[in-house]
Design brief:
The protein is mainly α and about 140 residues long. The protein has a domain at about 50-90. It has helices spanning about 10-15, 40-45, 50-85, 125-139.
Amino acid sequence: MDTPDFPPNSERSKKGVPDGKNISPVITGTAVRRRKSLRKQFKETFVAGDAKTAVSYVLFEVLLPAAKDMVVEAGSQGIEKLIFGESRRRSLTRPPSGPTGHISYNRYSSGSRLTGPERAISRTARSLYSSHSSSCVSS
């Protein structure tokens, strides 16, 4: 079966613009590729983003939220001073180091291990263990 040949339906064919592009040389002579300077190579290697992105990040993600927190804290402290006066102790809004408080890693644990009668083996278990271990040794 032979497929029919349909005319093109693009804007270019409707306007009658020719497909050939007029290409003219931009430079005269031969092109020479320059090596990048040491400064540019260092910058491309170690500096990931541009300065505009870094400044906008610091401004909108660090300084602006910190300024908002400062304004809110100043307002709440002012209202507390108006209501309670100066005799009120200063209350901390956040724990000193996260939601769990301070964890001392240089101390022994306090009472989490089982000691005493909870850890002791019952007499029946002890007798079963000793009879099992002696039967394994003698055979």
